[in-house]
Amino acid sequence: MKKVAVVQKSPVVLNRDATIALAVELLDQAASQGAEMIVFTEAFIPGYPAWIWRLRPGSDWGTNEALHKRLLENAVDLESDQLDPLYQAARKHHVTVVCGMHERDHRSSRATLYNTVVVIGPDGSLMNRHRKLMPTNPERMVWGAGDASGLRVINTPVGRIGTLICWENYMPLSRYALYAQGIDIYIAPTYDSGDDWLSSMRHIAREAGCWVINSGNLLHATDMPDDLDDGTTLYPDADEWVNSGDSAIIAPGGELVAGPLRNEEGILYAEIDTERAAMARRTLDIVGHYSRPDIFTLQVDTNAYAPISFTEPEHPETSAEAPQ
Q1: pLDDT in tens, 184-227
Q2: Alpha-carbon distance 102 to 322, whole Å?
Q3: For the domain 2-318, what is the CATH superfamily, name and number?
Q4: Is 9 a catalytic residue?
């Protein structure tokens, strides 16, 4: 049995370093309770841009630009040392960490953001980076589209885990790609919430015969920065729950074993037996004995794509740029 934790806590919105410090504090707390894997939600660092569902892309151009500038400034560059506090905390407690974030492209334009979820191993190393394949509706004004290079199921001390972000979970082929890699624990960091969404999570637990961790965004109007559009137009009701969270842990077959945690901060815990995933597939294994590869096949291109590649001269000393 392995103990897992799901953190449902508002970040310090639009403040990367303060949110990372908060994540470390929450990781310490969960680890002290015996958690071996700790899961944070979609875009936790530095917070999901909930205002995109209220601003008008054309008419509110100035506000959109000002907020996007702040997102760029507070996004995570994975080739920097910005996540070091989280790496060190994972290594200190020997825990696996799953965390969503705004990731700033470093290799090409350095101006595009991605909706990314990372897996940090118990040795403090970056085990996987998955960029959301298709941002949803107004999210496309914030994030670029990812590739499938991180669409992987990886071995961790708690079991074989994979992640899909929010409405990626409505993409049947994306789910199938994870199922076919022998997933034990399916992790869904998400901004969606409510009973309809939870019913989808329970369906996935039945369809895949695996554990499902639904890690929901919790946001209250008072979590928004005071200078967010003067704090009066977008979130005038100080008592409003912008998003309810609804984090939950679901067993193979669809049984809720923890949560949903609604309109409330907290950390959910559950003991997970990964052997239940194998047994759940005894009667229905949709990528095994219940598949028909002679009729249906899926091809997934896991190449990492870049907009440009450079060919270096084989003999730089004889190239046109070489000194004569």
Answers
A1: 999 999 999 999 999 999 999 999 999 999 999 999 999 988 88
A2: 42
A3: Carbon-nitrogen hydrolase (3.60.110.10)
A4: no
